[in-house]
Amino acid sequence: MYQNIFDSHAHYDDEKFDPDRADVIALLPGKGVCHVVNVACDMPSCKTSIALTEAYPFFFCSVGIHPHAASAFVPGDLDTLAGYTSLHKVVALGEIGLDYHYDFSPRDVQKQVFEAQLRLACDLGIPVIIHDREAHADTMGLLKKYRPQGIVHCYSGSAEMAKEILKLGMYLAFGGAVTFKNARKTLEAAASVPLDRLLVETDCPYMSPIPFRGQRCDSSMIPHTAERLAELHKIPPQELIDQTCENAKRVYRLADAQ
User: Fold this and answer.
1) Smallest Cα–Cα separation from 203: which of 168, 164, 176, 171?
2) Which of 77, 156, 204, 208 could form a disulfide with 212 if both were Cys (CB 3.0 to 4.6 A apart)?
């Protein structure tokens, strides 16, 4: 069994975990999971993410407004988010970004809310967790403008775009999608990322790796993602898991986390 697994992006406050959340989380350390960052998507999930960090010593969290929730944003939310970041287990602002696949919020509103949160992150000196779905050009434009520290999660762009993100000093995170049959572009991108800038994640309860497609995802499934990434980089899976754990601690500024 692998050890030292750091799930850099999860959503255990999602309703899909309502029937057995405590049971699932309680089993994770015994399955080699050392840390989880639970990622907020809107103002209510900021509170539930913080609550998880209070309940579980190995949990950390982020706070932020996802593009799907951008239409609900009000200016006072920025002050609330800034206040949350003073809590010692809040390690990033996220997930924030742009999503042109669903367009649940108008694109101009998404951009305004994304930009406001990028400015806040830069002012606070806190890392960001970026959501970018079918919005690569606009996302890159704003990342180059503000040059935040942080992560582009569930990376779906090209190897060429990955190089531009790396030049900004950011990290790239990959999940179960690297195990999918149609993952050629994602695998090319993952292979191009230096080991010291690579993260693993679940985005659970979504994006379960093969052989769990169609099932609810959780952090215990990360070894399947790690094995595929290790194969790409021609190293043992445990070495990749150890490196991605070190990377996650670095980007989230958790050097002392055990």
Assistant:
1) 176
2) 208
Structure tokens at 146: 């503000």
C-alpha–C-alpha distance, residues 133 and 5, integer Å: 26
Instruction: Give whole-number Cα distances, 174 to 15, 61, 87, 225, in Å.
Output: 23, 18, 27, 8
Structural domain of 56: 5-251
Span 73-115, pLDDT tens digits: 998 999 999 999 999 999 999 999 999 999 899 999 999 999 9
68-72-74 Cα angle (round to 5) = 130
CATH number at residue 76: 3.20.20.140
Q: Does residue 204 lie within any of the structural domains?
A: yes
Side chain identity at residue 71, one-letter code: S
Instruction: Encode pLDDT of 148-200 as tens digits.
Output: 999 999 999 999 999 999 999 999 999 999 999 999 999 999 999 999 999 99
Kind and range of the H or E run holding 175: none
Quickly tell me which residue has 């998880």 as its tokens: 52
